[in-house]
Design goal:
Helices cover 43% and strands 20% of the residues. With 328 residues, it is an alpha/beta fold. Strand 4, helix 9 (169-175) and strand 5 (180-185) form a beta-alpha-beta unit. The longest helix has 28 residues, at 100-127.
Length: 328
């Protein structure tokens, strides 16, 4: 793929300014809001917004409105259409890693992420005992769980990893059907609740441990199924979570993601610590493909007020007899 001379010049002009290069370096680390970028750069919101507009107009950043928030990220997926999206990662990679200003920006980004993580952890700890009740306000669990079971391997005894296990409900559901499983979560309080639930269910084939969804503890593919149930909307970098989940899948394994379709309920951010207001099929499909998985037709479960979706992706040779993959 080659860029036109005009597109290339426009992109280089847009990037050729210190603040805009700093913005590109930050957005290369994941999606960020205007207020977060303002906090990290220490500049006024109007100034930062002007720079962001120039970068978007040049095709170097994507602007993603979501409720009352707007996320910015490096332009994605433009390898085939002659746009500047294919150039932006190269520009970001050229930035000197040892530059003092860029290091200060990375420190600011780490502080922003730490604040997010602390807020989410406090919410989880405060609501661990009632987590299943909160989740059930959106769509009935029985329907979601049955559809999730429909996406499981047509055999017993498979190995499952449940990322962000919460109260351990997915482990209970799959463990009762013979799966061997482990669930990870960062919240000690959630893990306490999950252990109690697993013990009450009398399941010896599943267990939980503390873990980071961005840095899974397994060095090699060890799971036939990975589930991410109502967790991805808390993630700073959903694509990275999907890629890490795919990394630990065995050939023929399946990743299953349960989350919300796009919505406009901003209250879920302030009241429930949600980072993202649902996910579009196109984004989920792109993340699955980038992780080396073959997307499966999504399942939609309309609820009140939110719609729950189940997305899945298979890793190479499939364990599943049904011809459900959407490879094209």
């Amino acid at each position: 793929m080659s860029l036109s001379l005009t597109t290339l010049l426009d992109a280089l002009r847009a990037a050729a300014e210190p603040t805009r290069l700093r913005l590109l370096a930050l957005c290369a680390q994941g999606e960020l809001t205007v207020s977060e970028l303002v906090q990290i750069l220490g500049q006024s919101q109007p100034r930062v917004s002007r720079h962001l507009k120039l970068l978007c107009d040049a095709g170097l950043l994507d602007r993603l409105p979501e409720g009352s928030w707007v996320f910015y990220r490096l332009a994605a997926g433009a390898q085939a259409d002659g746009s500047a999206g294919a150039l932006v990662r190269k520009l970001a990679d050229l930035l000197p890693a040892d530059d003092a200003q860029l290091q200060r920006d990375r420190d600011g980004l780490n502080a922003v992420r730490a604040t997010r993580a602390a807020r989410a952890a406090a919410y989880f700890d405060a609501n661990a005992a009632s987590w299943d009740r909160i989740r059930s306000l959106h769509v009935h669990d029985r329907e979601v769980e049955q559809r999730l079971l429909d996406l499981m391997p047509p055999r017993a005894g498979f190995d499952v990893l449940d990322i962000g296990t919460g109260t351990g409900r997915m482990l209970e559901l799959l463990g009762a059907r013979g799966a061997r499983g482990v669930g990870i979560d960062q919240s000690h309080e959630m893990l306490r609740v999950a252990r109690a639930n697993i013990a009450k269910a009398g399941l010896a084939n599943v267990y939980v441990r503390q873990g980071d969804m961005y840095r899974l503890a397994w060095d090699a593919p060890e799971f036939d199924v990975v589930t991410i149930h109502q967790v991805l909307h808390f993630a700073d970098d959903p694509a990275a979570v999907v890629a890490e989940a795919a990394r630990v899948l065995r050939p023929g394994g399946r990743l299953v993601i349960v989350d919300f379709a796009p919505h406009t309920y901003d209250s879920l951010r302030s009241e429930n610590a949600h980072r993202r207001l649902g996910f579009a099929d196109a984004d989920m499909r792109a993340w699955l493909l980038a992780a080396g998985l073959v997307p499966v037709a999504p399942v939609k479960l309309p609820g009140e007020p939110l719609t729950v979706c189940l997305w899945a992706g298979d890793k190479a040779a499939s364990l599943y007899a049904a011809p459900t993959s959407l490879a094209s």
